[in-house]
# Entry
Amino acid sequence: MGRHSRPDDVDDDESTHIPADLAPSGRHAKIWDSPSLSGYAHPSMTNTGQLHIDLVAETVLMERIVAKVHEDRDGTLHEPRQPQLDGRAARRNTVAMLGSRLAIASMGWAGSMILARVLAPDDFGKFSFVFGLLGVLSVVTDLGVGRVVLAKLVECNPWEVSYVTTAFIALRGVLGFIGYALAVGYVVLLGYSSDVVWATVVAGLVVVVATPSNALSVMYQSRLRMASVAAAETLGQLAQLVCTIAAVLWHPVLLVVVAPAVINEVVAAALKIRGVRAGKAGPLPAARAQLWRWREMLIEAVPLTIGFALLTVLSKVDVLMLGRMDTFDSVGLYTVGYKFADLLSMVASTVVGPVTTLLVATWPAQSEQFRQRTREAAMLLAVLGAAATAAFWPTADGVLALLYGERFAEGADASRMLVAGSALSMLTELGLMVLVATGRHRVYPWVALAALAANVATNLVLIPRMSFEGAALATVLTEAVMVVAIWVVVARTVAVRRLFPFAQASAIAMLGVAVTVWASLLAEQFDVPWPITAVVAPLCVFAGVHFLPITGGLGLVGLVKSR
# Structure
């Protein structure tokens, strides 16, 4: 039987002997899966608000796969001619995916700016609402099944891998159709206008294609071949940008401009399929789907799904509530702020990803190094958050007017609050990764559930009174509660004292506030051009961190090198 032969080609009476030392050991039952449909909340810009989860999950996965290879010594992961997996391969995959997502974000941003300038305010709001709805449905279309399947794809023999892969793709395909039906049913039953309904019918095809396509990504991930996924997704986003420009030039109406997002997914899926057929993602899927495997996949995935499902809903529910309780124009003005907040999430992923690997490696044997790495990462994230806030807060009006047009300057205050909330969420993400590294992340769903309830309640009060600015205020208040709650949980569950540098983080926050206020007053008093303020303000934060004794003697250079 060849390396990529389908198991269906093996005769029933043919016996296959698997040596005892290659039998699945189940050690990777907690390996994480990164694919998630939450990235489709805004199709013109892949949602980098979930990027920190994706990259961190991939880093943890790669570290554990490498550890498994070193353990087995012979480098065999239950597949004939398995490619060598090592730390260098893991780093290449991380760099490839990060570079891909930066390129996707840049092209997506360009597309969003084009649409924001061309579409009427109401249509742009409807556009944002439709894809916000599809983002929420990732709770249904993902279900965390990939996190369970990854362990099976890494450890099993090639015949078992083929059957598991086929069952997984089939399950994801069914979930995609369920998500599509729920999206269309939601807008129909709640009586939205016909253009919103038809836009959902067309744009919802993203879910139908992307859900099984992400199953193919898991196959590549199990073989550390994510560079192929990165190339496919980048080319898909490029196709979307080209088609968006063509749609704007041809007929810039809502029903037409949502179609390029579907083309994006079709192109990416076609390229992934081509690589799978060429054997780049391991054994080919079997021709028959063993549907009885679905039950095991779903049962094992439930505990890992709840926390991220709540997190996904928490990050999108404000858009849906705003669309229901206010105007679609407000939705458009509000979601523009998320473009800037998501950039901070991407920055957080570049810090938290490698740090998580170090935390996994040092726990529990090297508790002092674990504590040191955690504190240094927290201080670095606090510095980056303070610098970003100081750069954006005084310049928000000018940035929005330049990139999206004068009418979007009205959303400057909401964008400021969303960026501040994203700065807080960077520390929340680090706290979650500390729980993950120590095996205590099952506590997180309870924190996320409480935060979701608080966010919904706050939105119900503030949106009728303050419109989209009320939604932004609810978001920043929720993030403040989340960062406190997650570190309280860390302090109570992880047996290492003083993990969070409270004094240093508070000093950095006060420095950021001082620079932000000073830069805002100077810009207003002396009419300083906003590009100058955007450069000088963060430099002042960095200088203060470097020269003032507020980082425990590390300074800015020490914090960067500590990674």
Notes: The chain has 20 helices and no strands. The radius of gyration is 24 Å. Confidence is low (pLDDT under 50) at residues 1-63, 65-87.
